[in-house]
């Protein structure tokens, strides 16, 4: 008897309680389109109490529904035993947006006895989507402005560097002609001063080239391709052949494999790092530079990287003068020089550019060294 009471009385009450707990509007009609369920959310939204709607024909309570073909079609479709759905649209009683779900109610024999309509308020979601769209549009506008500014800066840097380099060439040539034409009347000190001026002009020329290269990296917009690092290494040997021959250097590499990247940038990376290994040497010490490549799995990468994909580790090792390991991060700072510029030529931007190139490939770069024991530059590059 108690079980029968629970089944016949308590269970329907439980269903009604569950419906009333829903934040969605829940309504049900029988196969005659009379309302048989109307939860508390429906009461709050419409202002129509259960006692005024239960048992009444739906279209009598909401005659405007007869003009809503989509809603009528969806109910009729559900009456045939099919679930149906109407995407978000304005409700009949207010302009809030609702999603409508229509679920057929069947008996034990599978016969449709009615339809449940669940109306889900999506106004908050639409507000969030609208806000997100506004933020995306603002971000896109900022990106376009940044893109324009970057392009303008690159153009300005290129034009400026070329405009400055032209008079530098004229000044250098003028001093060269002066030494040739007036060399006999110039003192040795005067000639030495002119050579120092020419050396400074050459350094300024290198500096302008590196400034242009750095700005070009920041505005680079090509698609990454598969790059054979062995080809890059061979091209680097050709570019540095005069210096390698002059210093009697030995530059070797393992099979370096391939990476996705920008060929011109990777060429500059190799040239700058290997050139550093040739440059910062002890007197009468033939330079030796070795390049190796290893594929590292995520668990083999330094923990600070927090990378979940494998990476290629390119290692450039030289036998040069090295540097204090306390300054390992400073070698990548623009114009930072750990050694006297009077002994070692250059702009002080080689490793700065190398760092920018590695970062443009979504990679990382590190330097380790000890005074008098050479230096090691490690470049971590993604393989995908």
Automatic annotation (TrEMBL):
Enzyme Commission (EC) number: 2.7.13.3
Species of provenance: Niastella caeni
Name of the protein this chain belongs to: histidine kinase
SMART domains: HATPase_c
Coiled coil, from the record: 122-152
Catalytic activity: ATP + protein L-histidine = ADP + protein N-phospho-L-histidine
Domain Histidine kinase: start-end pairs: 159-384
Alphabetical list of CDD domains matching this protein: PAS
Molecular functions per Gene Ontology: phosphorelay sensor kinase activity
Keyword Lyase: no
Residues annotated as domain PAC: 79-134
Protein keywords: Coiled coil, Kinase, Phosphoprotein, Transferase
Lineage: Bacteria, Pseudomonadati, Bacteroidota, Chitinophagia, Chitinophagales
Residues of the PAS domain: 10-82
């Amino acid at each position: 008897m108690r079980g029968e009471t629970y089944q016949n009385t308590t269970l329907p009450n439980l269903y009604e309680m569950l419906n009333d707990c829903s934040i969605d509007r829940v309504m049900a009609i029988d196969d005659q389109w009379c309302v048989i369920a109307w939860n508390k959310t429906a009461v709050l939204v419409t202002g129509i109490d259960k006692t005024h709607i239960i048992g009444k024909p739906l279209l009598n309570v909401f005659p405007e529904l007869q003009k809503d073909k989509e809603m009528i079609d969806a109910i009729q479709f559900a009456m045939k035993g099919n679930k149906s759905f109407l995407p978000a649209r304005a409700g009949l009683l207010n302009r809030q947006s609702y999603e409508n779900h229509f679920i057929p109610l069947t008996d034990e024999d599978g016969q449709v006895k009615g339809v449940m309509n669940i109306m889900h308020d999506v106004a908050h979601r639409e507000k969030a989507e609208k806000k997100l769209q506004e933020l995306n549009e603002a971000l896109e506008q900022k990106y376009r402005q940044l893109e324009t500014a970057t392009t303008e800066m690159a153009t300005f840097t290129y034009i400026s560097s070329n405009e400055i380099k032209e008079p530098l060439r004229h000044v250098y040539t003028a001093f060269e002609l002066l030494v040739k034409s007036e060399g006999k009347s110039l003192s040795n000190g005067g000639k030495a001063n002119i050579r120092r001026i020419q050396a400074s002009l050459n350094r300024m020329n290198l500096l302008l080239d590196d400034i242009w290269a750095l700005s070009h990296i920041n505005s680079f917009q090509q698609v990454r391709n598969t790059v054979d690092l062995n080809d890059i290494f061979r091209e680097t040997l050709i570019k540095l052949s005069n210096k390698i021959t002059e210093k009697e250097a030995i530059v070797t590499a393992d099979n370096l494999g391939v990476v996705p990247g920008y060929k011109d940038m990777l060429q500059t990376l190799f040239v700058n790092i290997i050139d550093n290994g040739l440059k910062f040497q002890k007197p009468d010490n033939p330079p030796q530079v070795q390049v190796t490549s290893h594929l590292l799995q995520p668990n083999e990468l330094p923990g600070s990287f927090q990378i979940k994909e494998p990476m290629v580790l390119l290692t450039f090792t030289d036998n040069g003068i090295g540097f204090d390991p306390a300054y390992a991060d400073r070698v990548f700072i623009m114009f930072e020089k750990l050694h006297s510029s009077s002994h070692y030529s250059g702009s002080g931007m080689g490793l700065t550019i190398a760092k920018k190139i590695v970062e443009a490939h979504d990679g990382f770069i590190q330097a380790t060294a000890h005074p008098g024991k050479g230096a090691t530059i490690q470049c971590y590059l993604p393989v995908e």
